[in-house]
Design goal:
Domain DUF218: 23-132
Number of domains: 1
Mean pLDDT: 94
Largest sheet: 5 strands, parallel
CATH class: Alpha Beta
Distance between the termini: 36 Å
Protein name: YdcF family protein
CATH topology: Rossmann fold
CATH architecture: 3-Layer(aba) Sandwich
Helix content: 40-55%
InterPro entries: DUF218
Strand content: 15-25%
Structural class: alpha/beta
Radius of gyration: 15 Å
Strand order of the largest sheet: 3-2-1-4-5
Organism: Gryllotalpicola reticulitermitis
Number of strands: 5
Shape: globular
Number of helices: 5
Low-confidence stretches: none
Protein backbone atom coordinates (compact mmCIF):
# COMPACT_ATOMS: atom_id res chain seq x y z
CA UNK A 1 0.00 0.00 0.00
CA UNK A 2 2.82 2.41 0.84
CA UNK A 3 4.34 1.88 -2.62
CA UNK A 4 1.01 2.66 -4.28
CA UNK A 5 0.63 5.84 -2.21
CA UNK A 6 4.22 6.91 -2.95
CA UNK A 7 3.49 6.63 -6.66
CA UNK A 8 0.50 9.00 -6.61
CA UNK A 9 2.52 12.23 -7.06
CA UNK A 10 4.76 10.54 -9.62
CA UNK A 11 2.23 8.70 -11.79
CA UNK A 12 -1.31 9.84 -10.96
CA UNK A 13 -0.94 13.59 -10.36
CA UNK A 14 2.53 14.49 -11.63
CA UNK A 15 3.79 18.04 -11.99
CA UNK A 16 2.72 19.35 -15.38
CA UNK A 17 3.40 22.66 -17.04
CA UNK A 18 1.14 25.34 -18.43
CA UNK A 19 1.36 25.81 -22.18
CA UNK A 20 3.55 28.63 -23.42
CA UNK A 21 4.86 29.60 -26.84
CA UNK A 22 7.54 27.09 -27.91
CA UNK A 23 9.53 26.15 -30.99
CA UNK A 24 7.70 22.83 -31.49
CA UNK A 25 5.35 20.30 -29.97
CA UNK A 26 6.59 16.73 -29.65
CA UNK A 27 3.94 14.05 -29.13
CA UNK A 28 5.57 10.92 -27.79
CA UNK A 29 4.21 7.45 -28.34
CA UNK A 30 1.99 5.80 -28.54
CA UNK A 31 0.30 8.28 -30.87
CA UNK A 32 -3.15 8.14 -29.29
CA UNK A 33 -5.76 10.34 -30.95
CA UNK A 34 -6.30 12.37 -27.75
CA UNK A 35 -2.60 13.32 -27.74
CA UNK A 36 -2.74 14.37 -31.38
CA UNK A 37 -5.95 16.35 -30.84
CA UNK A 38 -4.39 18.15 -27.86
CA UNK A 39 -1.30 19.01 -29.92
CA UNK A 40 -3.46 20.33 -32.77
CA UNK A 41 -5.45 22.40 -30.29
CA UNK A 42 -2.26 23.91 -28.88
CA UNK A 43 -1.10 24.79 -32.41
CA UNK A 44 -4.49 26.40 -33.14
CA UNK A 45 -4.08 28.44 -29.94
CA UNK A 46 -0.70 29.71 -31.18
CA UNK A 47 1.62 27.84 -28.80
CA UNK A 48 3.66 26.38 -31.68
CA UNK A 49 3.62 26.14 -35.44
CA UNK A 50 4.55 22.49 -35.88
CA UNK A 51 3.94 19.06 -34.35
CA UNK A 52 6.43 16.20 -34.35
CA UNK A 53 4.63 12.89 -33.83
CA UNK A 54 6.41 9.70 -32.74
CA UNK A 55 4.85 6.70 -34.48
CA UNK A 56 5.62 3.04 -35.10
CA UNK A 57 7.21 2.38 -38.51
CA UNK A 58 3.99 0.99 -39.98
CA UNK A 59 2.18 4.26 -39.21
CA UNK A 60 4.60 6.58 -41.05
CA UNK A 61 2.33 6.60 -44.10
CA UNK A 62 -1.03 7.12 -42.35
CA UNK A 63 -3.27 10.09 -43.06
CA UNK A 64 -2.24 11.88 -39.88
CA UNK A 65 1.37 11.78 -41.09
CA UNK A 66 0.26 13.52 -44.28
CA UNK A 67 -1.44 16.32 -42.35
CA UNK A 68 0.02 19.79 -42.86
CA UNK A 69 1.94 20.93 -39.80
CA UNK A 70 2.71 17.39 -38.60
CA UNK A 71 6.00 15.58 -39.12
CA UNK A 72 5.93 11.92 -38.14
CA UNK A 73 9.10 10.22 -37.05
CA UNK A 74 10.22 6.80 -35.89
CA UNK A 75 13.38 6.90 -33.84
CA UNK A 76 15.41 3.95 -32.64
CA UNK A 77 15.11 2.90 -29.99
CA UNK A 78 11.35 3.41 -30.18
CA UNK A 79 11.31 4.53 -26.55
CA UNK A 80 11.19 7.76 -24.59
CA UNK A 81 14.99 7.86 -24.78
CA UNK A 82 14.84 7.56 -28.59
CA UNK A 83 12.22 10.31 -28.75
CA UNK A 84 14.39 12.56 -26.59
CA UNK A 85 17.40 11.83 -28.81
CA UNK A 86 15.30 12.71 -31.90
CA UNK A 87 14.33 15.96 -30.19
CA UNK A 88 18.02 16.62 -29.46
CA UNK A 89 18.88 16.24 -33.16
CA UNK A 90 15.98 18.47 -34.25
CA UNK A 91 16.81 21.08 -31.61
CA UNK A 92 20.42 21.22 -32.81
CA UNK A 93 19.43 21.40 -36.48
CA UNK A 94 16.62 23.92 -36.03
CA UNK A 95 18.00 25.91 -33.09
CA UNK A 96 15.14 25.10 -30.73
CA UNK A 97 15.23 26.48 -27.21
CA UNK A 98 11.83 25.22 -26.06
CA UNK A 99 9.36 22.42 -26.72
CA UNK A 100 6.10 21.10 -25.38
CA UNK A 101 6.10 17.33 -24.89
CA UNK A 102 2.70 15.63 -24.75
CA UNK A 103 2.21 12.22 -23.12
CA UNK A 104 -0.12 10.44 -20.70
CA UNK A 105 -0.12 11.62 -17.09
CA UNK A 106 1.31 8.31 -15.85
CA UNK A 107 4.36 8.91 -18.09
CA UNK A 108 4.97 12.63 -17.37
CA UNK A 109 7.52 12.23 -14.56
CA UNK A 110 9.68 9.68 -16.37
CA UNK A 111 9.44 11.57 -19.67
CA UNK A 112 10.47 14.79 -17.90
CA UNK A 113 13.47 13.03 -16.33
CA UNK A 114 14.62 11.67 -19.70
CA UNK A 115 13.90 14.80 -21.77
CA UNK A 116 15.58 17.08 -19.23
CA UNK A 117 18.75 15.00 -19.52
CA UNK A 118 18.71 13.85 -23.14
CA UNK A 119 16.83 16.32 -25.37
CA UNK A 120 19.32 19.16 -25.33
CA UNK A 121 16.43 21.62 -25.18
CA UNK A 122 16.76 24.22 -22.38
CA UNK A 123 13.00 24.52 -21.78
CA UNK A 124 10.88 21.37 -21.89
CA UNK A 125 7.24 21.87 -20.95
CA UNK A 126 5.40 18.65 -20.10
CA UNK A 127 1.69 18.64 -20.90
CA UNK A 128 -0.49 15.69 -20.02
CA UNK A 129 -3.04 14.05 -22.22
CA UNK A 130 -5.53 12.66 -19.75
CA UNK A 131 -6.00 8.98 -20.46
CA UNK A 132 -8.37 7.15 -18.11
CA UNK A 133 -7.03 3.80 -16.95
CA UNK A 134 -8.67 0.80 -15.33
CA UNK A 135 -7.26 -0.43 -12.00
CA UNK A 136 -5.43 -3.20 -13.86
CA UNK A 137 -3.92 -0.68 -16.28
CA UNK A 138 -2.79 1.47 -13.34
CA UNK A 139 -1.01 -1.50 -11.77
CA UNK A 140 0.67 -2.18 -15.11
CA UNK A 141 1.73 1.48 -15.50
CA UNK A 142 3.13 1.64 -11.95
CA UNK A 143 5.32 -1.37 -12.72
CA UNK A 144 6.20 -0.31 -16.27
CA UNK A 145 7.06 3.29 -15.39
CA UNK A 146 9.08 2.24 -12.34
CA UNK A 147 11.08 -0.22 -14.45
CA UNK A 148 11.49 2.56 -17.05
CA UNK A 149 12.91 4.89 -14.39
CA UNK A 150 15.40 2.21 -13.35
CA UNK A 151 16.44 1.72 -16.98
CA UNK A 152 16.78 5.47 -17.51
CA UNK A 153 19.06 5.70 -14.49
CA UNK A 154 21.18 2.80 -15.72
CA UNK A 155 21.35 3.63 -19.43
CA UNK A 156 21.25 7.42 -19.49
CA UNK A 157 21.15 9.02 -22.93
CA UNK A 158 23.46 6.58 -24.70
CA UNK A 159 22.62 5.46 -28.21
CA UNK A 160 21.32 1.90 -28.51
Amino acid sequence: MAIALAGIPIYVVPHTDKPARVDAIVVIGPPYSDRITLAQHLVSEGYADHIYLSVPTQELTTDVCRTAGITCFHELPFTTRGEARFTHKQAAALNWSSVIVITGQYHISRARYIFDRCSGVPTVRMIESYEPLSPTQWVHQYMYQTAGFAKALAVGCAAP
